[in-house]
Amino acid sequence: MNKTAPVTRKQTLDKDLDKIVHVEEAASVLSRNLIAPGLGLLFLAFAGIWSSFYVGAGGNAVIIIAAAAIGAYMALNIGANDVANNVGPAVGAKALTMGGALVIAAIFESAGALLAGGDVVDTISKGIIAPEAVGDPTHFVLAMMAALLSSALWVNLATWIGAPVSTTHAVVGGVVGAGIAAAGFSAVNWPMMGNIALSWVISPAIGGVAAALVLLFIKTTIVYQDDKIASARRWLPLLIAFMAAAFTTYLVTKGLTHIISLSGMTLLAVAVASFFIVWALSHVHIRKQSEGMENRNQSLRKLFNLPLVISAALLSFAHGANDVANAVGPLAAIVSTAQSDSVASHVDIPLWVMLIGAIGISLGLLLFGPKLIQMVGDQITKLNPMRAFCVALSAAVTVIIASWFGLPISSTHTAVGAIFGVGFFREWYTANSKRRKAYLARKNGGQLKEAEKVEKRVTAEEIIRRKLVRRAHVQTIVAAWVTTVPVSAALSAAIFYVLTFVS
């Protein structure tokens, strides 16, 4: 027995040490998981403190400080959820690493919000709710605060469960619900709501059709050509130049209007000049990059990596311009009403308010964005650089056009519509394209029937699998789209009644 006693003590000591190690590991993991929420809370406190320097110590200072914190909370959630649609395709296609995507999106989201977000902010802040219908400034301020808080809570919940939802839907639903609670159905600008609702239907359709057309163009002119590399050298620079012309036109007409004002012909000349300059530069780059490449699709995909990165940056810029309104539009209305003690017919956007939105979106992306980026990039459908480029380019152009007209469309609808457009088009093209069958016949020595047999063996199971992936996710996505507006509206109305009772 004396011989076994030390062994027993040693085993007990080992078990105790193992327990301590496991506890330390668990504590370390838990502390890492708390870093992002902790930094988020610090940003909310910073937004409130920062706003206090601009509003002074008046009677409504507490309301404005609280609204600034809620606006910052909404901005964080926009970055965590909605930005995934911009860079997710690039990450899923492995054209960007997660770290690179986060940095690019943060930079261009902030630039879009600060340079080109004004018109959409104006639409959100006073286009949905008729201020004169609410009348009482206090009720109007509480309605905007309820709208901000309800939409932020809903988007936060959606991010936590891994569902990409439209933050535009959430904030518009919140504004409508609070407006109805404050002054009845007459307070809502229903014609404006009709236009916004119509854009929610049109935007995914336009995004899907545009993405399908771009993919058709790429397949027809590059993929199913005998000399793929030569075709890519000819046509890919044109796609990049088109994207550059669209970006230049948007930036000049929306982001730089306070610096320069161009006539229609001058603007056209600037767009054409940017087209040819970028075409020349990209032509040289593509030719140099393609030297020595094998004539196969795997090599061809590498040529799309840089254009895909550029298009992701463009889409991030457009998203920042369009969706910053969801955070700072109601906040700007609150600040204007609280400071003037009257419901203003025109809302000026203070720079410090716009900065809260821009910084919050970027910070939310960096702290909480990777989860949704992985979902959008990997789990909706299989993407390679060519398909992802089609998605990003078509979604970017759609969002840019909508923001150009000051219409707050859903970038989520547009991007997801583009993804499904690519997927459904590929299904149709695989089964029906005569050009594709002719290409396969040439590739197999003119044996069309043999080529079709090989194609059926190779792709039938893959097509079924891809269909199942899309259709499995479409129910979740549509359910999220349908649920967001009524849930945000109901939650906003409830919060408004609570705020009214407390105040």
UniProtKB/TrEMBL annotation:
Main location: membrane
Entry GO CC: membrane
Record field: transmembrane: 34-55, 61-83, 95-118, 138-158, 170-190, 196-223, 235-253, 259-282, 303-321, 349-368, 388-407, 413-429, 474-499
Entry membrane topology: Multi-pass membrane protein
Cited InterPro entries: Phos_transporter
Keyword Transferase assigned: no
Listed GO biological process terms: phosphate ion transmembrane transport
Keywords: Membrane, Phosphate transport, Transmembrane, Transmembrane helix, Transport
One term of GO molecular function: phosphate transmembrane transporter activity
Subcellular location as annotated: Membrane
Family listed: Belongs to the inorganic phosphate transporter (PiT) (TC 2.A.20) family.
Protein name, per record: Phosphate transporter
Originating organism: Nitratireductor aestuarii
